[in-house]
Design a protein that fits this description.
147 residues
């Protein structure tokens, strides 16, 4: 297996026969929770690394498979849920809410998320999920501030 395949598929999670995006999001959530830091800077640096490696590897997989935003690519879900979890407060319930809301928004794709999928060279793969992650994180912050 190539480096690009491992990155784009989340170490092969994207090849699962059912719900690869959901399992990619779960993998991203577990990775986020298992990294022993509360540093916003470190979390953002990791996100940037995921985004750069993810865009490049996604583009390579798109070229190999001939399919844009192939469902085996889950690094975008990993990045999106990572952004959600970076934005929201910590804790088990917030993490679970972040994961679930991110998946709902990623599947629903409210405006202009769907339009971002058309961006080329692997960036569209990453950008639509990044915006879904931003939407989910901001929505949780808004609801939390109202409670």
């Amino acid at each position: 297996m190539s480096y690009h395949y491992l990155v784009a598929t989340g170490l092969g999670v994207g090849k699962l026969p059912m719900m690869p995006g959901t399992f990619g999001s779960i993998l991203g959530t577990l990775a986020f929770l298992l990294i022993p830091t509360d540093s916003l800077l470190i979390r953002l640096i990791i996100l940037v690394i995921i985004l750069i490696a993810g865009a490049f590897s996604s583009y390579k997989i798109e070229m190999i498979t001939g399919k844009q935003d192939n469902q085996i690519i889950v690094i975008d879900e990993i990045a999106g849920v990572w952004l959600t979890l970076t934005i929201i407060p910590g804790g088990t319930w917030f993490s679970l809410a972040g994961l679930l809301l991110f998946r709902l928004i990623d599947i629903w794709k409210p405006y202009p998320i769907k339009k971002l999928e058309k961006v080329k060279y692997g960036y569209g793969v990453m950008l639509d999920d990044l915006l879904a992650g931003l939407y989910a994180g901001l929505l949780i912050l808004i609801v939390n501030s109202m409670i």
